[in-house]
Amino acid sequence: PAVTLDGREVAILGNIEFPREIGASLSHGASGIGLYRTEFLYLGSKNTPTEEEHFNAYTQSIQELGNKPIIIRTVDLGGDKFFPTADNSKEDNPFLGCRSIRYCLENVTIFKSQLRAILRASAFGNVKILFPLISSLQELQKAKDVLKEVKEELNHKGIDFDKNIELGIMIEVPSAVMLADILAKEVDFFSLGTNDLIQYTLAIDRSNEKVAHLYSPAHPAILRLIKMAIKAAEDNNIRIGICGEMGGEIEYTILLLGLGLREFSVAPAMIIPEVKKIIRSVTFERAKEVAEIVCSFNDPAETTKYLRDMAREIIPEIF
User: Which PANTHER family match (predicted)?
Assistant: First the structure.
């Protein structure tokens, strides 16, 4: 881990789109994989991936990692990611439609196949499960019920898996933040998905050039939501990390550290040493002071300028 000047440990992990990226994350100093996206199994195939295809992909990745943690996110289809053989009936608003965990709960056979593979793979390494786009307690409970069913099926068949496998959820819609104190009682960890959190909170499609300039991680509403999610996690003694792009944008590292984050999962891999260097160049107390100042600002531009100036002062060689 990276350690601040006053001794606070912070885990730095890697985000990956494909298993072949694991080596780069490790060689740049990642202590594990904090976001293993599984869409590649679907988007690169004309057929629904089998349980064995899932299992083989996961176990190969686990072997490369040794006992380092790997957080496998269940498939996040829909929105801008469509599986060729899935029901691609046109939706007027696909980002507000049947995507992610909703897609999985609508296609339980596909969901269970992936969960079986993840659980079977968990017998060989330090595996954790991550559910994306949870927006209500009921949605989480339904997903947990499916997971429980799969565990019971494997137990009945005598198939080995990690009986204490950790479960987390992405915090990436405003409703999840507002319910974070309730959701925290149901899971072992949170992972902040800031890309969607910003998009859904600010009602901005960042691929739309007419409004993309309004998309900002420094928006005070976003910082308040992050602060709320961190507090809910701390109050319930569960871990919280960040896997959204904001975590790899180094001008925000000190702010996120000061808000209380102790786990960053970032991409591309080459960013990892820079994030570590920033964390090792500041005290946690100083980071908290920076966060307090930033949270008093109402203008994203003011926040961004302050953070960049602060980063240049602390680590001029990076900026």
Answer: PHOSPHOENOLPYRUVATE-PROTEIN PHOSPHOTRANSFERASE
Q: What is the tens place of the pLDDT at every residue in 110-120? A: 999 999 999 99
Task: Taking residues 174-179, report their average pLDDT.
Answer: 99
Percentage of residues in the chain having pLDDT higher than 90: 86
Amino acid at 147: L
Domain 11-318 sits in CATH at 3.20.20.60
* Structure tokens that stand for 184 in this block: 């925290």
DSSP bridge pairs for 129: 72, 167
Is the peptide bond preceding residue 268 cis, with omega within 30 degrees of 0? yes
Question: Distance (Å, rounded) from C-alpha 100 to C-alpha 75?
Answer: 6
Question: What is this structure's pTM?
Answer: 0.94
The residues spanned by each domain of the chain are: 11-318
> Do strands 126-131 and 9-16 pair parallel, antiparallel, or not at all (unpaired)?
unpaired
Average pLDDT over residues 84-112: 77
Strand 9-16 and strand 2-3: the pairing is: antiparallel
Distances (CA, A) of 148 to 115, 116, 157: 10, 11, 14
As a whole number of angstroms, the distance between CA 221 and CA 243 comes to 19
- State pLDDT tens for residues 114-156: 999 999 999 999 999 999 999 999 999 999 999 999 999 999 9
Report residue 114 as tokens.
């992936």
DSSP E strand boundaries for 115-261? 126-131, 166-171, 189-192, 239-242
Q: CA angle at residue 116 from 112 to 238, to 5 degrees?
A: 90
